[in-house]
Amino acid sequence: MKTVLKFLFTLIAVLIGHSIQAQTTYSYTLYDGDTDQPLLSGFNNNISWDLDISNRLSVVSDIASGIYTQVKFTLSNGHTQTEGAHPYACYGDTSGNFTPWTQTAEEAVSFTVQYLNGPGNITETDNFTITFFRSSTSGGGGSSFPNVALNKSTSQSSTWNGYTSDQAVDGITTGNNWTHTINGANPWWRVDLGQAYDIDQIKVINRPSSCCVGRLNGAVVYVGNQDSSDPSDYTAVYNLNGDLVQDIQNLSVSGRYVMIHKTTGQGILNITEVEVHGQVTTAPPPKPSTPTTFYASNPTDTSIDLNWNASTITSGSISHYEIDIDPSTTINVGNSTNTTINSLSPGVTYTFAVRAVSDQGVSSDPTDDLSATTTDSSSGGGGSGGGSSTSLWTQSGNDVSFSSGKVGIGTSTPDENLHVVGNQRIQGDNASLFIKGTGEDDYNGGRIFLNTEYINSGNNFASAKISMHRGTNGTGHFEIQRTAGNGAYMGNLLRYKDAEGWRFFTANSNTSTSSSLQMQISHQGNVSIGTLLVGDWKLAVDGKIRAREIRVDNDAWPDFVFVSDYDLPTLDEIRNFIKKYGHLPAVPSAKEVEEEGVELGEMNKILLQKIEELTLYILELDEQVKELEKGSK
């Protein structure tokens, strides 16, 4: 760790004289002892500066030559030095006199400067104190990137007396320019860098006052990507202390937000400046996919062929493939997806794995280990199974075999990647069988998937289709469908969906003809035939209906027409209504029937009501006729 001294100079130079120049005040200058360049002069309070511990410190009196014969410098640690020539100066270095100054932060060293006359009598005395603040550097090696926190957006848990959060990123480190929170629980300060950066250095400058440097004790520097003041959303990178400058270097952390959070309970945060050095985060180069279908074939006494399917990559290309042979050997086999491994020993089992390497040098994950055994013709056997068979391995005769990438169970001559002769059984708590075509997703295309909500034969099975599945949006789906061919079948398509209910489709045997909907049964039990316009009807039919009998229940039959107080419209009223509306009262118009249809029960009731009214008109007319007949006699 490189330690840089930081000290605040408070000078009290009050000369208490034993000579005639009583209470005369002189000034002093601090010098860099290696360069002889002044660091500070006068009686200034609250001024700080840097001094590397490799440099020496000089305290020089500006008293003119000849006034005194000697100047005696006494440190509070007991070191005394007397200078007899102008300029009167006391020098310190790291190896001796002033070593205590670098031990702890906020260490105060008192000076007593005495002026002696010729006989050696003390004539004047100056007293002053230098307070040292130590800085710390962690990691070594500063950043080559700019300060990306400068003038960025900031916030803090609270603000006291106008000391706002932005004062820690304004680039000003002198004067009373620092942040200040109100004394409270777990105070925090945060800067938003605007986007994510790869950060390699963070520098925190404390408030350079002996009263307040300890306020950073217990605070932690965090880096994260969430707009949050919760430390659990961040990565902790450094625990702060009371040093004046804490320079955290050689970091390897990424984030958009840098937060200083005091996690030790009640307190105040004072920060003079925060620097964050880094570069904009860039996405890492893509990683190739792991090669698939890795298998061995054609073993000989000294070689084995290895085969695999090519890797893919989102951008760039595959540069080459690498083969691991056992744990100790890796070979580059170029950009081919097959190779022959030579110089092997007879009858030995080897372990192989393959990985892809991109044109940007990024490797894929390796495949699972593959074990393969060379043949041993000297012992009359071949591979693990013996004989001159070309199979890489067999067990129990021909029960299990593997040849040219094909696995046979119950056969030594498999025709497909997996060829099973005999019964199959899949067993387990969540045992499944999933078969799908190349390029198909998990919810469409031809396959069989058992122990899920999906059973679906492929398009190559032209005789029938059975589909039961749960869609990606949670919608259930059931279909029984025939797509082509002759013979009896249950509809062309029978389908159930959560949103529709049951639907029945038909089409001819030509698969290019689209199926047409014939009937639907909704979740409410409503049935539609030839139409989807079910509405609230229990049965909707777009077409003719033939039946021997239809019975309609109606509890409002119009016998009320024959009640004595029934208000029978006059014929003049009927005549006027017809003239105005073009139809009988209470009877739907032609337009209404065209748009809405008619209800058979209601219409029969209306017609009967009109017949009964007509009967009453006839009876009245009969009475009038009889009266006329009487008058004519």
From TrEMBL:
Species per Swiss-Prot/TrEMBL record: Aureicoccus marinus
Top-level lineage group: Bacteria
Domain (Fibronectin type-III) ranges: 287-377
Sequence similarity: Belongs to the fucolectin family.
UniProt xrefs under SUPFAM superfamilies: Fibronectin type III, Galactose-binding domain-like
Pfam families: F5_F8_type_C_2, fn3
Record's function text: Acts as a defensive agent. Recognizes blood group fucosylated oligosaccharides including A, B, H and Lewis B-type antigens. Does not recognize Lewis A antigen and has low affinity for monovalent haptens.
Keywords: Calcium, Disulfide bond, Lectin, Metal-binding, Signal
Signal sequence, renumbered to the chain: 1-22
Chain intervals with Gly residues compositional bias: 379-388
Protein name: Fibronectin type-III domain-containing protein
Stretches with biased composition (Low complexity): 363-378
Subunit structure: Homotrimer.
Annotated ranges, domain F5/8 type C: 133-279
GO MF entry, a single one: fucose binding
Region (Disordered): 360-395
Example GO biological process: regulation of cellular defense response
